[in-house]
Each structure stands twice: as structure tokens, then as C-alpha cells.
Amino acid sequence: MFPTPQSIWTDVTQIRAQAPLIHNITNFVVMNNTANALLAVGASPAMVHAPEETADFVAISSALVVNIGTLDENFVAGMKQAMRRAKDLGKPIVFDPVGVGATPYRNRVSAELLTLSAPEIIRGNASEIMALAGLDAQTKGVDSLFGSDAAVDAAHQLSRSLGCVVVVSGATDYIIRGEQTAAIANGHPLMTRVTGMGCTATALTGAFAAVNADYFQAAAHAMAVMGVAGEMAVEKQTAPGSLQVNFLDALYQLTASDIADRLKINE
Ligand SMILES: Nc1ncnc2c1ncn2[C@@H]1O[C@H](COP(=O)(O)OP(=O)(O)OP(=O)(O)O)[C@@H](O)[C@H]1O
Ligand SMILES: Cc1ncsc1CCO
Ligand SMILES: [Mg+2]
């Protein structure tokens, strides 16, 4: 079913009621922001990356979020253990290919992880999705050099080849499964002035995937909530420091009518 304000709100209510445990293997930059965003939306985050325990931890979690932002061999070992176990147990995996395309190491690790256990959902910016799809895309470290429109074809291609949902974030967020597309035009450019808002979108996607096994819907619901909360935060104060705090408050205080009044979604 195509996402609607009602289907978004059903999932928000489910997250608040169930407080699903979300296992995050993520980067040092955003561990705090993303844990706080998950708490604010109603989920229960844990940031756990030691290879000695990630397989056990994913077994008690409702979804796994893997983010390659500050990679090293120890992180990669933890990711592999967790992703293998998540596949065995049928837990949804959400993957954020931060900075893929920037270095051969990131490209190699991403390819290895995707081959090992295909995720249910991948969320990246345009440069990252184009690089993952095998295009020789330019990236400026962890920031995109392209608008999200430029990566739509690559996202369809990647979705078909891995059989997963692919999200390209940007001024318009595209949620893509095979030939199916949802385009969400919420959010604000100031969101790019706070580090890890994309990583936050990915972490929230983990919470929605934990309560909704239609992963196309789950991904779209997460991006809609992200964009709506971002807009509400910017309306309170137009500067990055406040945005970071006001965004958490907006997530926590979000109502069904905030979504119904603001959602800008198209097929
Ligand atoms: N120009 C824009 N207008 C409106 N919203 C935007 C714009 N750019 C980004 N956003 C919103 O900001 C959020 C983060 O997306 P972005 O594409 O900046 O992620 P990212 O580049 O992966 O970020 P990071 O790597 O810092 O986590 C998304 O929810 C997106 O909708
Ligand atoms: C800034 C930064 N560097 C590595 S990961 C990260 C968080 C945003 O992607
Ligand atoms: Mg990113």
C-alpha cells in the first residue's frame, strides 16, 4: 500500500507502544544524536559494535542498523557477525553506506557486506547511492555532490539487483522498490548543516522496520517523519545548534495532525 498520513501515524503509535530495541552499529560522530532521535520517537536504541557480542545482541533486537561512517576492521568484524545473524533470524537490516565512493576501502567493505547479507533497506545520499550502484560517482567525503534526482535511476537499478528498498535523501527523498517510487518533499536545507541527519534518518528507518514488515512503507514513513520534524524544528529557530535540539523535541511531540497537515508525498 502507498504510504498515507494514516499509515505513518499507525507506525508511530506502534513504535511508541512497543518501544522496539534497535541495534545500531554506527559511527562515532552520530552515536549520541541517533540514540536520542530513536528515544524521542519512542524506540529503544543500543549502540553495540564489538564483534564479541554483536551476534548475541542482534538476537534480542527488533532491527539492525549498520552505518559505515567511521569504519575500521573491528567495526567491520562486528557488522559481519551481526548481519549474518540478522539474516539467519529474519530480523530487518537497514544499511547506511556513509561516504562510499570516497575510498577503495569503503567500496570494498560495502560490497562485502552487501554480498554477505542483503539488507532490507539501504538509505544514502545521491553520491552514495550512485557509487553503490557501480557508477563512478564523485563524493565529497560524507557529503553528496549531487541532488537526489540525479540518483533515481541508480536507486532503481540497485533495488532491482539487491531486491531491497533503496532510499535517496536530499531536497526530495525518493523511496524506491523495483519500479515503485514514493517521493517526499518535506524537510529543510538547514538539515544539511547538522551532522548526521542522514544517519538519523537511517536509524529511524530501523525503528519503522521493526514495527512494519512492508519495508517500502517503513522506509517512507521514516523519511516522512524525518522531514516533518525537521520542518517543525526550523520553524522554531533557523540555526543549526537549535535545530539539533528542536528536532528531537519535534519528534517527541509529533501528532497525527502535524503529519496530515504537512506531508508532501507523490508517486
Ligand atoms: N535541500 C534539502 N531540502 C530539504 N530537506 C533536505 C535537504 N537536504 C537534506 N534534507 C533532509 O535532510 C535529511 C538528511 O539527508 P541528507 O541527504 O542530508 O543525508 P546525508 O548526506 O546522508 O547526511 P549525513 O551523512 O550527514 O548523515 C533527510 O531527511 C532529507 O530529507
Ligand atoms: C562527519 C562524519 N564523518 C564520518 S561519519 C560522519 C557523520 C555524517 O555522515
Ligand atoms: Mg550520510
Automatic annotation (TrEMBL):
CDD domains in UniProt: THZ_kinase
Protein residues bound to ATP: R123, S169
Annotated InterPro entries: Hyethyz_kinase (IPR000417), Ribokinase-like (IPR029056)
EC number, as in UniProt: 2.7.1.50
A GO term for molecular function: hydroxyethylthiazole kinase activity
Reaction it catalyzes: 5-(2-hydroxyethyl)-4-methylthiazole + ATP = 4-methyl-5-(2-phosphooxyethyl)-thiazole + ADP + H(+)
Cofactor: Mg(2+)
Pfam families hit by this protein: HK
Ligand binding (substrate): M47, G196
Keyword annotations from UniProtKB, A to Z: ATP-binding, Kinase, Magnesium, Metal-binding, Nucleotide-binding, Thiamine biosynthesis, Transferase
Source organism, top-level taxon: Bacteria
Pathway: Cofactor biosynthesis; thiamine diphosphate biosynthesis; 4-methyl-5-(2-phosphoethyl)-thiazole from 5-(2-hydroxyethyl)-4-methylthiazole: step 1/1
Biological role stated in the UniProt entry: Catalyzes the phosphorylation of the hydroxyl group of 4-methyl-5-beta-hydroxyethylthiazole (THZ).
Family per similarity comment: Belongs to the Thz kinase family.
Entry-linked HAMAP family: Thz_kinase
Protein name: Hydroxyethylthiazole kinase
